[in-house]
């Protein structure tokens, strides 16, 4: 009998929903204080997960929740990059 592989779950910082890691995107702040989108989900640094959905990304930008989770100022270009990732994945 074949065993199914366990999918890792992560929590979206906006919706507070536990979802499979592949349905979320990770935003990272590294030791140098740089903030960037981590599409691989494996880069070193403090991370926060967001659901790949334009509405959730907009809500994160309005509430500045990533600033609190990453303890730094998140540049507006990060949100634009997140929107592009959501559009590319077809999660508008």
From TrEMBL:
<dbReference type="InterPro" id="IPR035931">
    <property type="entry name" value="YlxR-like_sf"/>
</dbReference>
<dbReference type="Pfam" id="PF04296">
    <property type="entry name" value="YlxR"/>
</dbReference>
<dbReference type="InterPro" id="IPR037465">
    <property type="entry name" value="YlxR"/>
</dbReference>
<dbReference type="InterPro" id="IPR007393">
    <property type="entry name" value="YlxR_dom"/>
</dbReference>
<protein>
    <submittedName>
        <fullName>YlxR family protein</fullName>
    </submittedName>
</protein>
<feature type="domain" description="YlxR">
    <location>
        <begin position="10"/>
        <end position="83"/>
    </location>
</feature>
